[in-house]
Design brief:
heterodimer, A: about 700 residues, alpha+beta, Beta-lactamase, five-stranded antiparallel beta sheet, 21 strands, B: mainly alpha, three-stranded antiparallel beta sheet
Amino acid sequence: MILPPVDPNLEQQGPQKPPLRDDTRFAAGKIAVFQYAAVGIFLFLISGFWKLQVQHPEEYDERAQANSIKAFPIIAPRGRILDRDGRVIVGNHTSHTLLLARETFKEEHLAPIAQGLDLDLDDLTRRLDRMRNQPKWAPMILKQDLGPADLAFVESHRDFFPELVLIQAQQRLYPQNGMLAHLIGYTGEISEDELDSPELAKYDPGDIIGKFGIERQYNTTLMGVDGSRQVVVDNRGQVRKELANKPAIPGKDLQLTIDLDLQVVAELAMDSGVKEMGVDHKNGAVVALDPRTGDVLAMVSRPAFDPNKFAAGIKRKDWKEIADNPDRPMLNRAIQAQQAPGSTFKPIVALAGLESGAIDNKFTVHCAGGVALYGRFQKCWVYPKGHGTVALHAGIEHSCDVYFYTISAKQGIENLAFYGDIVGFGHKSGIDLPGEMPGVMPSPQWKLRNYRQKWYAGETPSVGIGQGALTVTPLQLARAIGGLAVGGVWHHPHLRKDLDKSEKPAEWKLNQDNVKDVVDGMFAVVNGAGTGGRAYLPNVEVCGKTGSAQLASNEYVKSVGGNKERLKDNAWFVGFAPRENPEIVVAALFEHGVHGQYAAPIVKDVMKAYFDKKKRLAALKNQQQNLTAGLERMVTLGLPDGTGRGFGPAAGLSPGAPGESPAAARKPRPTTPIQAAIMDAFAPSRPEN
Amino acid sequence: MSRYLSPRDIDWPLLIIVLLICGAGVIQIYSATMDTTFHSAWWRQILYVGCGLLLMWFILAIDYHSLMHHVPMMYGASVVALLGTAAIGATVFGSKRWIPIPGTGIHLQVSEFVKLVIILLVARYLTDLKRDELEIREMLILSGLVLVPMALVLAQPDLGTSLTYMAVLITGAFLAGLRWKYVAAIAVVAVLVVPVGWTFFLKQYQKERLISFMDPERDPQGNGYQLIQSQIAVGAGGMFGKGITHGTQAQLRFLPVPHTDFIFSAFAEEHGFVGVVVVLSLYFVMIMRIVQNAQTAPDRAGMYICMGVAGLLLFHMLVNVGMVVGRMPVTGIPLPFMSAGGSSIWSNFLALGLVNNVRLRRFVN
């Protein structure tokens, strides 16, 4: 190949030019310097690679992996909480949880993030500080259950805050309006104090645990084990590849003994007002038990709080509102209110008297509106009127204080305390809820222990009418009367349906004639001329006892004058039904309800719901049997059975069938379980009526 | 005196080395652009290299003395073209460096080609002096001539490319016998000028790049990001690398522009220290061959041209590879013969053509 010749003009010009200094030798030394410089530069560059690739490759390899390999937690859903029929009380709904990747997190981002997500900056700093001993890759939960505004903030600031990681999580969904709030409780991020306690030490900061109620009591059952997902991401956080996937182990469902049908009625009974008193709601508590097993069928405490506010981390303002409320909404009055039972204690006094032989059912007392005992005139509640001559039956029926002053003085405090202890007063019932209070069953030993004083016989009569130092919780009262009603077996109340029943109930051999005498008296309270007429139910033999317990002496109330509302008598009612072989016992405390008769309708409503449901279920069962029989007839006749679908008992016809109710399964929104329960409770399917 | 030139006299070892480097570049571009919108870049790069060889062939045909004769015209054309870029150029990544060529989809980077004019300009000026030492007056005139296109490129803004002109100037001035006292004087002036330049001429992003070069961990997500990610990529490569298409830093795009400015970072990640030493050795031999051609050049003009090319390429290596290992600040200049992009490839093959041009005519006298 031949290249074209050089420009001939140029060559011609060449010789005409003056001789130029055109040797290149003068630069030889400098070219050598350039060569040395080049060697130097290449060694400089290679040493750079040596340092990075040969001396510390692991460190950079780790950082490359940290860039691209991310571990996200898969948060295990908590188990659902079901009622005794399998209806969902507490479920989960899919929500977004925002995590903070602490390894890429920049300190100065905290303030704008807190502002954008409406979080408390101080609180956030504290929580972040708490995580400092955790490995860097462990993210912190920044906010749960993100709303649309939060999501918009996160999406639009993806490039600014790469440390924000959005994951899907199962958010707790509690009933609204405070239904079952105290019983169910709520969950929250584990606190530093809790981490120090031995039973919670296995958890890590940032874990969500049960904080209150059932959520806390059965946390280990309900809480699952979080899984994790290891993925390869690119520089924009897009997942390119999945490396490992350890699925979360969901928590186990927990079935309670609570019957939503009864619970709803009890809640509504507390939320409705009393016209005569001019109040539009009631504070207090309701407890319904099955006295044969100790199953808690319903438990209400008022005022309530909204656990949903706690579920995603409570805001400081909301917490302050709850903490500052003088009515103490966080108090579960069913197990924590220790109040004088008033006259509801009288059946126990009567029983104790009969059992000890201090009295018999023919023992009479004359009530002239009061009686002088131990040098003090004690008034009956009908003072200045009197009950005349009363024996046991009339004493209970009319709740004659004079009768009970007398018989308690006659049997003595030791005997009262003995039987009070048997029925469960003065110690915890052992219900599976945290924070139960024991109440007080006064006795000479109790007084000596707590006050270092001798018991004065003059104190005994007030204990005999459920006053004095005696205090009980609504749960204790329901258990005591229930155990009496079934003839002397006091089961330990419990909420978990499949609870290990190995714990023996408290038992005492009672003379069943004595039991019958007391029960007859209580029957008369409701069905006779007694104080509990408002608990009357047609076709059901309801027995009960009212109580109006003083919070302060009449003289003290007069002297303070001012805040009288808070010093008004508490209204109690405790009742069971039926009279023979009772199936349900209900205790209701209506704080400042003045008279037990105002508490009676609460108990009546719950009992009515119980017996209505029983009837409804019986009718349904009947119907199903007829259907099955018809189907069998069709089969024997050789007729096509139309695939049989829709005929089987599992087709959701029975509200008592285990499993989620169809309505709840379709639409797991907060109102659904309640609505379903209300529908069931008020279903117009009463074929007998 | 031979009137005919033979292709036998082309520096074939140099050409083969360069083509090996180009091959490594194409493979790396292929790997780095997999699954991205630039995935066609590797075969485009092959086309560019082919065109580059044709351009080299073309420039071989014109005697370099003839080229030097037309330096004033080429210089004027360069200034006009740079002004034209400022007027009609396409803005990419916030700077106006490219002139779109209608119908081809190719964007020409004028400043890349101006490098060649600067090489010829310096060579012509220094040759015309016909002295063994460079006086300060002449140095200032030459600097003034180089400074005009440099300022235009700096205004685009493109600090890296404008600095390459400076590299050519310094190489030339050094060879021409710039006295040490003037070197000292220039250093003093530079020290005085730097704060002024910092205040008035450097753009904010350029300042931040320099700051983050001093302390990349200061802002790991921002300006230090590129430096840190590049060092991570290099370090993660280890001794033998992760294998082609297996470098996570490049494949998952943590590494910025892994097929252009940071191609050597991606290469180091996938081929490790061994691959790096092999390719850097090729580059070293390439530069040494060019220097050898300077030594055998028939006249000063040829020597200045070859050394200008050598100085230019050495500066590219220092700045680009130095940036990859975190020993130089981030200035966006490509790695010769490896980085994807037509303008860079073509200007480098043209420079190679100049070297061979000189070589072909080494026996002319």
